[in-house]
Amino acid sequence: MLYWMHREHRARDNWALQHAHAEAARLGAPLAVVWCLASSFLGATIRQFGFLLRGMEETRRHLAAAGIPLVVLRGNPPEEVVGYARSVHAALVVTDFDVLRVKRAWLASAARGLAGFCPLHEVDGRNVVPCRVASPKREYAARTLRPKIHRLLPEFLTPLPPLPSAPSVPWTLPVPEVDWASLRDNLAVDRTVAEVGPLPGIPDIAPGEDAARAALDDFIRARLHRYHLRNDPNADGVSGLSPYLHFGMLSAQRAALAAQAHGEAPDDCRASFLEELIVRRELADNFCLHAQDYDAVTCFPDWARATLDKHRGDPRPALYDHAQLDAARTEDPLWNAAQIEMVVTGRMHGYLRMYWAKQILLWSPTPEDAVRTAVTLNDRYFLDGRDSNGYTGIAWSAGGVHDRPWGERPVQGTIRSMTYNGARSKFDVGAYIRRMQALRGGEGEQGEQGELFTFAMGGL
How far is CA 421 from CA 216, 409, 415, 428, in A? Predict the structure, then answer.
């Protein structure tokens, strides 16, 4: 019995592993987890690969404590997993659900390779309500998916069982030792984007499921009661859990149960967090599953494509090429600061991620250029890039996905706008910029009217 882990990188609170364990017990078969390190993945750098590998090293220890070996493969994942399954005469392969095109192709390839040999079971351990159960179609907006999710929560938002004790039939086939440091050091990926580490004034984010649970506990205890301040980048009101949820080091179901049980937090804070954690995240998986062009203008709704086409010839307030955007060399000090936060820390406050993407639309020759640039930067720098939530956020920001038409403006037409002055009315923009300036070691200061803010850009 094999569990092919590729999205839910954890031993605990893992429904696919639970299913594989149960099937192993039913068939009286030994169980192993197989994981394949691909040589590249959607523009990921050593920042993302390093975070994942360090987390997997810990997950191997948790699996070993449960009597389950981790078999590490390298190469093309479906090809390597199918080959290994055939070599050990697997009776069943269980694997993770994923909506991204590359993962859908992996699963389709594995299904073909295993056809006539053994079944392949796909288990949705990402969503509280499984994506295909929640809705069989692309949902128009959160308001259309929300009632379907809420109707099913009593069935699916239930206590998570512990991982059972060691399988009754031990795994006796050889499992090669893994030199994790060597695996990381010899990986042929882009190393110009550094792994993230402790930074002055920035909470550390260590990889692994233990760190993920500690981060969840810290958020529930210290910040859930301030979740109503989540749109203020200076208020420290957000969860900070996104990288752990992206890499599958934390179960969304575990996070939802923890928030539900924390009676000391105001009801509105708990409700808002559960809305973001369940409805909004599951809306993103729904969108990417049913719109496999999720990272292209063609996924935008008809009204959005029409309004963008109408304004294709509009003069842009500025035009910046990819290198200028990458280096945060624009005349918008808030955007520059957000870009620096992403480049240096691998994260960006959620409100600013929307502003960031919308400004790229205004500064690009075409909507197609804007989407390509936003996706490239998203996947290169964010720890939680290459994810349905990031792609859906870009599609919402630049193309009105899950939104409606607003007042018409140049370039963006009736796509909802977000402006510098609008941000100033919501939070202390200058304080945020100064924090990013201190983080990067830059020089210069933003004036009241938002003059050009300069950073020391060495090493970017």
Answer: 34, 16, 18, 11
